[in-house]
Amino acid sequence: MRTTGVIPSRPKRRLWFGPGIGRLNYRHKQRLFIYGGLLIPLIYFVVIRILPILYSFNVSFREWGMLSPDKPFVGFDNYVTLLSDPLFLKSLVNTGIYVVVGVPAQLIAGLIVALLLQQVVKLRGLFRTAYFIPYVTSVVAVSWIFRWLLMKNGIVNALFIELGLGPQSFLYSPSQAIFWIIAVMVWQNIGFQMLIFLAGLQNIPKLYYEAAAIDGATGWQRFVHITIPLLNPVMLLSVVMASIGFLQSFTQVLNMTGGGPLDSTISVVLHIYNLAFKSFDMGLASAATVILFVIIFILTLVQLKVLGSRFQQE
User: Fold this and answer.
1) Which helix (H) or strand (E) holds 20?
2) Do residues 301 and 287 lie in contact, with contact meaning Cβ atoms separated by under 8 Å?
3) For labelling alongside 121, which of 21, 127, 218, 306 has CA 20 to 30 A away?
4) How many CA atoms lie within 13 Å of 174's alpha carbon, on the beta-carbon side?
5) How big is the chain by its Cα radius of gyration, in Å?
6) Tens digit of pLDDT per residue, the chain (314 long)?
7) Cβ(177)–Cβ(257) below 8 Å
8) How far apart are the first and last CA of the chain?
9) Residue 253 to residue 90: CA distance in whole angstroms
10) In this structure, are residues 173 and 86 in contact, taking their beta carbons and an 8 Å threshold?
C-alpha cells in the first residue's frame, strides 16, 4: 500500500457558541462577559418586578375573581369601588399616620444613636452590633415578642402594676395600637439608620468643626450649621427608604394586631392582602396596589425634588 507521507489535518472543532464569538479578541470577550454579567440581574429585575407591575395594571381594570373563569374588562369600576370603600379610606389614613409619625421618629432616633456612638471610644463595636441586631432579626419573631410583652396580662402591664400605675390596653386600644406598632418598627430599624448616619458623619471633615470651635461656635451651632447641612445627602436616602418602608407596612401589623382593633391599625398593604387572599378579588387588590404604587412614586419624586434641591443649594 502506497502512502504519500502527509498526515491529514484534523477537522476544525466547532465551538458551541458559533464561529463569530470565537473570532473576538480578548478585549471584546472581556466586555462581552462584563455586559453579560450585568444583564442577568437586569433581566431578573424586569421579570420579577417590572412585568408583575405591568400585569397588575391589566388586572386592575378587570373583574378578576379567582374562582371565576371569566375576567371581563370593567374600566375604572374597581378604582371607584375602592375610593368609596370606608375600609380602604381608613387604611389610607392609617398608612399616612405610619409615614408621618414613623419616618421622623426613625430618622431622629437613628441620628441620635449615631451621634452618641461617634463620641464613644471604648466598646463602640459592641454598641453598634447591639443596635444593628434587631434589624437583621426576623420581623415576624420581633412582632410576636412585642405582642407577648404588650398583652393585657403581659410583662409590661405587670411592671406597671408593680410601679403603682394602672394597666394599659396597648395593642387592644384603638387609640394606642397604631403607635405601639410604629414604635416597634422604629426600634427595629434604628440600626440601619444608625449605620447610614455613621457613614455620613465620618465623611464630614473635622477641619470644619475645629474652625467653628476657634470662632466660638457652640456645640448646637456646629450641629445645626455643619452637621445637618453636610448630612443632607444621607438624610435624603434615609427619608426615601424609610417612607417606602412605612408605606409598605404589613408584617408587623399582621402579626401584632391583624389590622385591629376596630381596623385602627390596618394598612393599605394589609388591606390588599385581605382583598386578594381572603376575598379572592384580585381586581380590587390590583387596583389598590396601583394606587399605592402611584402614592409611593409621587411621594418619592417630591422628596427627591425638595430635599435634593436643598442639598444642591447648600
Assistant:
1) helix 19-22
2) no
3) 218
4) 5
5) 28
6) 445 555 555 555 555 555 566 677 788 888 888 998 999 989 999 999 889 888 989 999 988 877 777 888 888 999 999 999 999 999 999 999 999 999 999 999 999 999 999 888 788 888 888 989 999 999 999 999 999 999 888 889 889 888 888 888 889 989 999 999 999 999 999 999 999 999 999 888 888 888 888 888 888 898 888 888 888 888 888 998 999 999 999 999 999 999 888 899 999 999 999 999 888 889 999 999 999 999 999 988 888 887 766 555 55
7) yes
8) 93
9) 14
10) no
Helices within 175-227 (DSSP H only):
177-202, 206-214, 219-222
Alpha carbon 37 to its chain centroid, in Å, reads: 26
Q: What is the largest CA-CA distance in the chain?
A: 115
Cα–Cα dist 91/35, whole Å: 44
Q: Report the alpha-carbon distance of residue 207 to residue 217 in Å, rounded.
A: 14
CA distances to 131, 202, 257, 284, 308 from 234, rounded to whole Å, are 19, 12, 33, 37, 11
Residues facing 281 on adjacent strands: 65
Cross-strand partners of 62? 73
What whole-number distance in Å separates Cα of residue 171 and Cα of residue 14?
Answer: 70
Q: At 52, which amino acid appears?
A: P
C-alpha cell at 126: 459592641
Say if residues 288 and 272 touch (Cβ distance below 8 Å).
yes
The answer to whether the bond into 229 is cis (omega within 30° of 0) is no
Query: Is there a contact between 276 and 285 (Cβ–Cβ < 8 Å)?
Result: yes
Determine if the pTM surpasses 0.85: no
